[in-house]
Amino acid sequence: MPHLVEPPPFPNDVSTAQLPRLSYAKLLSMTESETDLLFSILKVTGLFLLDLRDTSEGAELLNDVADIFNVSEKLFGLEDEEKLKYVLDWKTTNGYKAAGMGKTDSQGTPDRCEFYTVGRDDILGVTSQRDAPPVLNGSRDVFKSFMLHSHGVVEHLYTYLEFHLQLPPGTFSSKNRISFPSGTQTRLLKFSPQPSDDRRTSMVPHTDLGTITILFNILGGLQFLSPGLENSEKNWQFVRPEPGCAIINLGDAMVKWTNGLFKSPYHRVTYAPGEQANRVRYSVAYLVRPENETPMKRLQGSEMIPPLKEGEVEEDITAAEWHHKQSEKHRAK
């Protein structure tokens, strides 16, 4: 199983982002210095590590992640013909996407990323159950536990942001209630080793569309472009995976709600560095998106959120409509 095999060491001779590491225990206890650091990070990069090992809630989530990795390996081990029975629905992005179905650049270079997305609404019974391979249908309790524990982390993060923005309690959580339809998903990803003489970007550079992403991976390959830097190879930095930590980033919906105060990091996936490049790379992501009927407009009630420009009028659009519109823009690039 991927999480039980000791990976080759992450090399020290590659450009690596120095991400701040926050303690979940300190955040839960509302340690002022920790919540202040979180708030400052989200205004600059929107990307950080969250150490989950020092809380019982975090430990439960890490156990869920190990179980999800096991399911992921079994899923991607199925024959292609079987996986393609559950092909991706581009409108919801739920289902299976084979490597090469997406593009990594404007020239149409095929991606090297295989993924399967499971909707939270499906798992929690908010909507009807989607057809899925038996290995997933037999693991619905695993996904439910992972989603509920992940959402617990998200709810706590919302609380700290509301506090610092001086917004009424529940401002964010009321826009992503788990019993209401949304595009929130768990995504399982697989990146196979690339030929040594043809290694390149595996997943298109992008920002996430939702509010918060919680990501788990064991091998390197995720890269981040610091704000303000030119999109050139020399400026991309690896994100080093750390044991017991989740990689957390904000998405475009949070940028929209705060009118640019918070940032959504530009990132991509390439081949893993060093000896890790010879291993199959698995990732698990919890992608949080607003309730479908939530208005996508600047939040009211906080003096910290920048005002609209003079004469600017925001579009009347729901989260579901906005997400579809943004997805089309991403696919067109």
Structural overview:
Helix 3 packs across helix 7. The chain starts with 20 loop residues before the first strand and ends with a helix. The longest helix is centred in the middle third of the chain and has 26 residues, at 140-165. Helices cover 29% and strands 18% of the residues. The chain has helices at 24-28, 32-44, 56-76, 80-83, 120-124, 134-137, 140-165, 252-257, 319-332; strands at residues 21-23, 47-51, 95-97, 114-119, 185-191, 203-206, 212-217, 222-225, 236-238, 245-250, 266-269, 281-288. The protein has 333 residues and is α+β, with helices and mostly antiparallel strands. It has nine helices and twelve strands. The protein has an eight-stranded mixed sheet with strand order 1-2-10-7-12-5-4-3. It has a four-stranded antiparallel sheet with strand order 6-11-8-9, with no helix packed on it.
Quick recap:
This protein is of the alpha+beta class. The chain has helices spanning 24-28, 32-44, 56-76, 80-83, 120-124, 134-137, 140-165, 252-257, 319-332; strands spanning 21-23, 47-51, 95-97, 114-119, 185-191, 203-206, 212-217, 222-225, 236-238, 245-250, 266-269, 281-288.
SSE inventory with pairings:
Elements: E1 21-23, H1 24-28, H2 32-44, E2 47-51, H3 56-76, H4 80-83, E3 95-97, E4 114-119, H5 120-124, H6 134-137, H7 140-165, E5 185-191, E6 203-206, E7 212-217, E8 222-225, E9 236-238, E10 245-250, H8 252-257, E11 266-269, E12 281-288, H9 319-332
Parallel strand pairs: 1-2
Antiparallel strand pairs: 2-10, 3-4, 4-5, 5-12, 6-11, 7-10, 7-12, 8-9, 8-11
Helix pairs in contact: 3-7
